[in-house]
Amino acid sequence: MALSATGKRIDLASATSAPQETAVTPIPWLEQVLLFLAFAVFLSIGPEDPNPELGQSNLSNTLGMGAALAITVPLVLFYWRQTFPMVLRSPLLVAFIILAFASVLWSVYPNLTFKRSGSLLAPVLVGLVAAHRYQPREVIRFTGRFCLLLTAVSLVVVIAFPAVGIMHDRYNTEIDGAWRGFTPHKSVFGTILVLGFEIYVWRTLFESKRRWRHAGIAVAMLVICYLARSSTGFIAMGFSMPLLAIIAVRRSQARLRWLPELAFWGLLILAAVFLPFLLGTLLQMLGKDLSLTGRIPLWQSLIPFIADRPLGGYGYGAFWISKSPQLILVTQMNPWRPPDAHNAYLGVALELGLTGAAIATTFLLSVLIRAYRLSRSTGLAWVSYIFVFSFIYVVTSMVETPLLANGSFFTFMLAFCHFSLVQHGLKQAEQNVPARKVREAPGVALTAAADPGQGLRFRRMSGQRAAPGAKSEPPR
């Protein structure tokens, strides 16, 4: 209870609501269609061979990247007064792009490197425009609907055309019988399912409307991921769900809200300590062998290639080329014909050397750390999602996910997450209310303008407004 300026008693606990965010502004329909098409191109839906021979290209991807650049470049230039400050506050991302183009000078395939460096701009610029024009929550929700639609279409393909929707390889028991829907491979389908699962778990925990429907969709995607035999997907889902739950509890008024977070990090440390002793049993449960389905021998065989060109690599996008000398040697050592490094950090080191790997890794960690700090200080729901996404990205990059790859959906998502955080910081600076000081300002709500029904009605007040003349107490 507290006294208002008129002397009336006010129940602050009942007067507060869930963490507040700006009012929702839907994405226009035409722009939703353009985003949908860009997402489809970035997910590389359609091409069967991820490493075409030199001189060959996928026409749909080429046209898609060209269209994405044709639409976004004019928008970036038109809104340059707003977008240029966001670019200036992205030195690591800019450095990576410059290094990618500069690698044309030492690339084993200069023309290809130049083309793929140009394709790197497409998802980055789409992420920049999306962060500038749309509210982060709306882009996240749209991404969830996109993944849901692709999942539904894939289920139709699996049921109606099992010869297409289910992978068949009698010589590979891991792949034989795995669901892939209409995507080229089960790993692409697993990516769609993981992204959708994360978003719908997030909506279940942070939105009150249609909560049970969102939870049902998340459970359905979990079951389908099992049928797709995506071990990486299960790892990502296993981390994302408790992380989101922990953040949701941390936003509440509970006095011991730090306990779930402490328990999570404690379990993570224990897992890191005891994992070597339980690795065999865990891999057997996931249907893997001790080589992680050939990944460990692959990584060992790639180390000499990195050592051969430690500073600049083989050129951006110039290593995994069908019938290239380096890929022929990799295939001889790994007869299962790996399409990529199956480790994002090694993949970047092969193409841009240790310098590029250091820049890309630091950029990814910077998004993770900034999102973590902002989620603790503001309680914003969309920031919580960005933290969980970037955390899962860090983990899955060790075994699968590409890092700042040309024309990749993950490159778009990472760029969008980064620019959304930058945009929020710029707005806070304009209002002269730095995000890190919000929780210290007595009587200031964590965020502005209500979003009705947002969250599980969790609320954390940083302080209360004292009556005139009364001595204020420090926030608890």
Based on the model shown, name its key terms.
mainly alpha; globular; two-stranded antiparallel ribbon; disordered C terminus; 62% helix; 17 helices
What does this structure look like?
By secondary structure, the chain is mostly helical. The chain folds into two domains: 219 residues, no CATH class; 155 residues, no CATH class. It is 62% helix and 1% strand. The protein has a two-stranded antiparallel ribbon with strand order 1-2. Helix 3 crosses helix 6, helix 9 packs antiparallel against helix 10 and helix 11 runs antiparallel to helix 16. It is globular and about 55 Å long. The protein starts with a strand and ends in a 46-residue tail after the last helix.
Please outline the major beta sheet.
2 strands, antiparallel
Q: Give the CA-based shape.
A: globular
Identify low-pLDDT runs: 1-18, 276-280, 438-476
Number of helices: 17
- Strand portion, in percent? under 5%
Evaluate the radius of gyration: 24 Å
Strand order of the largest sheet: 1-2
Class by helix and strand content?
mainly alpha
Number of domains: 2
Order of helices and strands: EEHHHHHHHHHHHHHHHHH
The share of residues in helices is 55-70%
Let me know the number of strands: 2
Q: What does the average pLDDT come to?
A: 77
Task: Give the termini separation.
Answer: 15 Å
